[in-house]
Amino acid sequence: MTPLDGTIVLDAAAMRAAEQAAIAAGESVESLMQRAGRAVGDAVHRLAGAHAVLVVCGPGNNGGDGYLAAARLRALGRTVRVAAAAAPRGAAAIAAREAWGGAVEPLAAAKPAPVLVDSLYGTGLRRPLAADEAASLARLVAGAALAIAVDLPSGVASDDGALLGQVPRYHVTLALGAAKPAHLLQPAAARCGGVRVLPLGIALSGDTRVLSPPRLAAPPIDSHKFSRGMVALIKGRMAGAGELAARAAMRAGAGYVSLLGATIPQAPHALVRRSIERDDPLADARIGALVIGPGLGRDDHARNLLERALASDRALLIDGDALHLVTPERLRARGGTIVLTPHAGEFHALFGETQGSKLAAARTAAERAGAVVVYKGPDTVIAAPGGRALLAGEASSWLSTAGSGDVLAGAIAARLAAGGDPLDAAAAGVWLHAAAARRLGAGFIADDLAEALAPALAAAIRETRA
């Protein structure tokens, strides 16, 4: 579990709308700022040990939060200083500086402190920091033992996670009210450190959340191999990719896994091998999920196999090479349950170049294809038609190894074959994949990753019971 698991994610416009709704219901900008400042002050007090604190404030409402946080820290007995990039603008920020009432140093002249609180700019920033501001902030962050960002590190774009300029790395980010896309999307997420959401007591709604551990149970006592879920994988030119996906499906809970294609002698004895040429294994009504794409190839034979898969009425997971051989329009026309698992190159091959954030691109893709889209990478976005989306937190960088995507395809297929919401199945597979990588630590290969899905699954079941 992480502090963000399952929390709502709001972009800048949605966060402003939530604040405006609170104001329309009787709150004031000043009361919301006071709440935010107190919450930040209390959080910094808990994190800072006995060390002195420097709060750097910008001219807007984020700066106002910083002034009030400094006032709260002083009331708690802290040694605290304030530096500002510019005079506050707006009645609420001006009132916050007056509430601080103490000395305010020029940002450029401020000396570092053991704890640095960045309250310069927050949600909604669209431009790089001025060169002198960026240089001063970098200097102060480098001179601190603990660097804390208020809402967002100054200089990142809230909605797409872009860096608007040079942005230092923080140890902690205190998200105000809700998580923002930049807390999960790269490259900004890597600058945030640990993210903690500080509730502001306002109503929040939205269809984007942070991925959380799946709620999984052991098979019922009367289970059999088919009731647990049958996965069929169509083997392609690179047999090892299909075997990796098959191993992963078995370890992620599928009761019966069939590899459709030539025999692989090294494969587990529990893996059922069937010819796809001599009979019609895709007609088996017991198949809960059909996988095509890992190691498939892109020749005419691969195209024919893909057409056979598309013609079936089984829940379908499309990965790898197959994503280069199909169109969103073909997928939408096919209908039924479809999960797509592209990395960036495959995503652009299937959907073309996109504008905006990775989150927005995944949502648009899900609508176009009528499918759940797992847009993989150092940040992973899972989107379903209708707008629901999940953002996965940072996963192990050791997943950047050949075959890890094949393992993910198998893990998702196992959960898809078990039935239920395909978005939930995709989310469970992504979570198990990341949990397996965490268990392995460093230097693992995809074969290890597939095997590590079993203990990751067991841990998820224990957590659900608890």
Brief descriptors of the model:
15% strand; 466 residues; ten-stranded mixed β-sheet; 14 helices; alpha/beta; 38% helix
Fraction of residues in H or I helices: 25-40%
Instruction: Give the strand order, joined by hyphens, for the main sheet.
Output: 8-17-16-15-14-13-12-9-10-11
How many DSSP H or I helices? 14
Largest sheet entry: 10 strands, mixed
Number of strands: 17
Overall 3D form: elongated
Please state the structural category: alpha/beta
Termini, distance in Å?
13 Å
Average residue-wise pLDDT: 95
Q: Using the CA coordinates, give the radius of gyration.
A: 25 Å
Chart the SSEs and their pairings:
Layout: H1 12-24, H2 29-47, E1 53-57, H3 61-75, E2 80-84, H4 91-100, E3 105-106, E4 115-119, H5 131-142, E5 146-150, E6 172-176, H6 188-192, E7 194-198, E8 208-210, E9 230-234, H7 239-251, E10 256-260, E11 272-274, E12 287-292, H8 300-311, E13 316-318, H9 328-334, E14 338-340, H10 344-351, H11 358-369, E15 372-375, E16 380-383, E17 389-392, H12 404-417, H13 422-440, H14 446-465
